[in-house]
Design brief:
nine-stranded mixed beta sheet; single chain; alpha/beta; 16% strand
Length: 309
């Protein structure tokens, strides 16, 4: 791991693979650990230089005041473009997950020259807050159960890890993986101040971030080959959000992870890596082992989705 100076701030990064290989830049959601080790290693093994990084106010990146950020979503997008150039990998394959997926969308719109391909995982086309009327909101029953729990003592590593594990159970994710990741995030967080620890674990800085102006209406101008990956059981950003992204970004491919909720579970690593590596390649006239056509109720007016795991 390392820290690099970008646009007047410092971003924590971790690299995998050959320094001279084509760059895949993974924007954290908000920390770099939102991207599984297994996926980073798989992409690197297939000839890519993979760099995952922490957004501002998370992980090894500079922490100012996550309760009152002095930067905007567009600043975070500019960070991604500047980091790609600094690493010598522009145009790079840019990928974002969760709130990092919002960063990646704006980066692809505002700094298209810095990127060659785009992957969006478990995200949506509008800022935090109430969604557009045609987009599904958070699953209210799940959110109710999550917010009914008392907050942990953010200075207690074990309590934070257990809080993450119980939350994963409610969301439909693997508790053991969530416990381990939360402990790693806690270890990488600078200090034990509750607001900083909470921002690292929950991404709460995004609820206070200026995310204007809207960018959804600009999605049809994205000219990069794009992949949208979404868990079929995601309660935070339900699948309709991923379907809308794939429908509105020209030529985007939708990969639905049938047994996933939020993020990329390890069993889905190979399918996601193959889809990412395939971006920009010519599509064969008759794909080998074609998947069955999606039922009409799943297509929602767009192209059939691929499915995995």
């Amino acid at each position: 791991m390392a820290a690099v100076a970008v646009r007047g701030t410092v971003l924590g990064i971790e690299s995998f693979g050959d320094h001279d290989a084509p760059l895949v830049l993974l924007a954290g959601g908000p920390t770099m650990l939102s991207w599984p080790d297994a996926l980073c290693e798989r992409l690197a093994a297939d000839g890519r230089r993979v760099v995952r990084y922490d957004l501002r106010d998370s992980g090894e990146s500079a922490t100012a005041d996550p309760q009152a950020p002095a930067y905007t979503l567009r600043d975070l997008a500019a960070d991604a473009a500047a980091l790609a150039r600094l690493l010598g990998g522009a145009p790079a394959h840019l990928a974002g997950t969760g709130v990092g997926g919002m960063v990646a969308q704006v980066a692809a719109l505002d700094h298209a020259e810095a990127f060659s391909t785009l992957t969006l995982v478990g995200t949506r086309a509008v800022a935090p807050g109430p969604p557009d009327e045609d987009l599904p909101d958070h699953d209210q029953a799940t959110m109710g159960r999550l917010f009914a729990r008392p907050m942990p003592d953010w200075t207690d590593r074990a309590a934070v890890a257990e809080f993450a594990a119980t939350g994963a159970s409610i969301r439909g994710d693997a508790p053991a993986a969530a416990r381990e990741r939360a402990a790693r995030i806690w270890d990488r967080t600078p200090g034990t101040a509750a607001p900083v620890q909470m921002a690292n674990q929950l991404g709460t800085v995004f609820t206070r971030l200026d995310c204007g102006p809207r960018w959804r209406e600009r999605l049809p101008t994205i000219g990069l080959p794009a992949l949208v990956v979404h868990g079929r059981h995601d309660p935070l950003f339900p699948l309709g959000n991923g379907e809308a992204l794939a429908r509105e970004i020209p030529g985007a491919r939708l990969l639905v992870l049938d047994h996933a909720a939020i993020g990329i579970p390890d069993p889905a690593t190979d399918a996601v890596a193959e889809a990412m590596l395939g971006l920009g390649r010519p599509t064969p006239a008759t794909p080998p082992n074609p998947l069955p056509e999606e039922p009409p109720e799943r297509r929602r007016g767009g192209a059939p989705a691929d499915r995995a795991w």
